[in-house]
Every structure is written in structure tokens, then in C-alpha cells.
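Course assignment 3, question 2. Fill in each field.
Student: A.L.
Task: Predict the tertiary structure for the chain below.
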Amino acid sequence: MSNTIYLGYYFKVKPLQPAVEILIAQLGYAGFESFVETEEGVTAYIQKEECSETILDDIQILNSEEFEISFTSEEIEQTNWNTEWEKNFNPIIVDDTCSVRAPFHEKPNTEFDIIIEPKMSFGTGHHETTHMMIQHLLKNEFTDKSVLDMGCGTGVLAILAEMKGAKPIDAIDYDNWCYLNSLENVERNNRKHITVLEGDANLLPGRHYDIVIANINRNILINDMETYINTLNDNGTLFLSGFYRDDIPIIKAECNKYALKHVETLERNNWVALKFEK
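Answer field:
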């Protein structure tokens, strides 16, 4: 599988809020996958093959008279991705317990310290959905639980699950860069119980897990929900994110079809992460 090419859109926004939050939400619906907030606005990334000349036509806030928004865009070469991250990637700490950082950052005093080389993979903890999924994982028991990290990105959630005692763990992503990056990050963090696979939900039939983590966009979640739930053992736990507060009813309705019980909702800047039990 060839490497995926990404485009970077660099938005300058005045005033910053709430324009940046609205802009990220609308870009997310349009297909942009990852966002880095900057001092001047936000940088958004999208796969080149998913982008079109009209991709921004439906981004309503760009036509708003309340905000001044300008942008430039460029193709992100694999060779300069590390440079992009060194410019934009700051370490994060979630609930004073879990840190996510690059190798060039100083080691913090946290119980769980995850080191990643993000490259063009997503799931660093900076995005609200990954941040909330880390919070879910920190609050729940993983000792000797079998886990699926679906849409694993950098592999950060699978790595944290093993740090909390989970085994065995499957980390799956359809994107070749994410697959390769997860392999690298699993090795970097000296994890022994994570199997990284390249593919999608078609890999799942016949597999079974105590916990399923799926941080993917809403449409894929809905399309593949039955497959996820079929892999979930009785009394298993399902964590879902990658969508907005307004999407909760449709996600809950899909889970209700399979008699899953909604247990908890986390919310961060209009993004949500839901916990269900089977």
C-alpha cells in the first residue's frame, strides 16, 4: 500500500474564539482529519485523495462577517513531517496522570508516560477525541482484558491500555502511515502484547475482545457498529469517539439496536466520547 499524501491548510483567524472551535467542527464534517491550534488560528490536515477544489465551499464560517479568516495550503511531504511536528507538537498531560510527548521533550513526572513519533498519523492526545479517550482509559480497569483499538492512529490508546495491564491487544488502522507509525511507537514504548494490523472492520470477524475502543468518524462508526459489537464479549465495554454532541442521538440509537447500555459521556469543546456496556 502506498503512502498517503496529506494537504495542510493553515488558517489565520481573528478573533480566535469562538471562530476556531466552529471552524474545526465544520472542517471535521467536511473530511479534515486532524487539527493543531496555533497562535494565529488552526492548521488542518486532510488526505489529498479526499480533498477537492470545492472542499471549503460548505464551510459557512469562512463567509461570516463576524470573523476575519484567511488561509494557505500545501502538500505535506513525508520527509518534512517531523519538522511540522517539531514546530507544532507540544507535550500534553491528561488528568495529571498520563503524558504524551515526543522523544525530544523532557520526561514529566506522570504515572503513564507515552513517547510517540507522530509523523503523519493522528491520535496524539491534542485532539479532543483522543484526549477524552485517554480519560476513559485512565478511569477504567484493563488488567488482563483483551482490547481492540480500532482506527489506532499513532497507537497511543493501545499503548496506554497495555500500560494499564491489558493483554492481548489488537491495534488496527487502514492507513499505511498509521500502521507503520503504530508499529514504531509500540516498539519505542517497549510494549509486548500489541499486534498492529493494517486494514479495516473486515479483519474483525472471528475476533473477540473484552474492550473495544473506536475513535473514528461518525459515518464509519455507524456503518461498522454491528461488526464491533459482534466482536465484543458478554459484559464487554465499548468506547466510542470521533463525533460531536449533536451526533449523540444517532450513535445511541445505533447502539440501542444491540441492547448496549450507555454508561458515561465525556465532552470537550463540543466533541464527545461515550462509554457503553454489553
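Instructor remarks: The chain is about 25% helix and 30% strand. The CA atoms of residues 29 and 254 lie 19 Å apart.
Grade: pending
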